[in-house]
Design goal:
mainly beta, about 35% strand, disordered N terminus, SH3 type barrels, about 100 residues, 5-stranded antiparallel sheet
């Protein structure tokens, strides 16, 4: 678990350290950058998204808002917005095509 208090290490606005945010994600969906030609998502690149809103474009399926509470060498875990509430999820980094942190 990252130390609290530093960038990406503390609880987000209205959220507990490991729980979801107390409200919904931003209403504006970010635009995909470039051609989204990402071959692999590096854990170091997505680590700065811990305890922040992140918009994820998966390789398969619809894009979604998430609130990450864990970034490992091969996976991420946290809370995924289903349009009504936050639902806990986990995902292999290889399944993420692209992402944007807010």
């Amino acid at each position: 678990m990252p130390p609290s208090g530093g960038p990406g290490g503390g609880p987000g606005p209205g959220g507990s350290k490991e729980g979801p945010p107390s409200g919904p994600p931003p209403s504006a969906v970010p635009q995909a950058k470039g051609g989204m030609q990402t071959k692999a998502v590096d854990p170091g690149a997505i680590r700065h998204c811990l305890y922040r809103f992140v918009y994820i474009w998966p390789r398969r399926g619809r894009p979604f808002w998430a609130w990450l509470v864990f970034v490992g060498r091969r996976s991420v875990a946290g809370w995924r917005w289903n349009g009504f509430r936050w639902v806990y999820f986990g995902m292999d980094l290889r399944e993420i095509q692209s992402f944007v942190c807010m």
